[in-house]
């Protein structure tokens, strides 16, 4: 019975309480930008949809290295910043 409960917990969707737009660039905004480019809200949603525990990151910068889209194609990202200043206000930051 215990495994059924934990399985149900993993499937339960965690919904954000609120959302705001990023105003300045940061490492977190960079990673959110990458998730949103690939069609996900953030790391929480990506892990729920793709059933993965770890997202591949660049060891040097901590930025996301690759993401799998919902249609199973992959997005590969550079080690350097990709979210330009003009794109920062487009990034949605979710609060749980």
Automatic annotation (TrEMBL):
One Pfam match: Meiosis_expr
InterPro entries assigned to the protein according to its UniProt record, in alphabetical order: Meiosis-expressed_gene_1
GO CC list: nucleus
Superkingdom as given in the UniProt entry: Eukaryota
Family that this chain belongs to: Belongs to the MEIG1 family.
PANTHER family per UniProt: MEIOSIS EXPRESSED GENE 1 PROTEIN HOMOLOG (PTHR17008:SF1), MEIOSIS-EXPRESSED GENE 1 PROTEIN (PTHR17008)
UniProt function note: Essential for spermiogenesis.
Name of the featured protein: MEIG1 protein
Species annotation: Neodrepanis coruscans (wattled asity)
Gene this protein is translated from: Meig1
């Amino acid at each position: 019975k215990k495994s059924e409960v934990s399985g149900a917990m993993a499937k339960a969707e965690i919904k954000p309480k609120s959302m705001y737009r990023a105003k300045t660039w940061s490492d977190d905004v960079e990673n959110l930008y990458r998730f949103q480019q690939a069609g996900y809200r953030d790391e929480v949603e990506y892990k729920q949809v793709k059933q993965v525990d770890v997202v591949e990151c660049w060891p040097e910068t901590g930025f996301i290295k690759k993401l799998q889209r919902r249609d199973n194609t992959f997005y590969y990202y550079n080690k350097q910043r990709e979210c330009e200043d003009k794109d920062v206000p487009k990034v949605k930051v979710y609060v749980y």
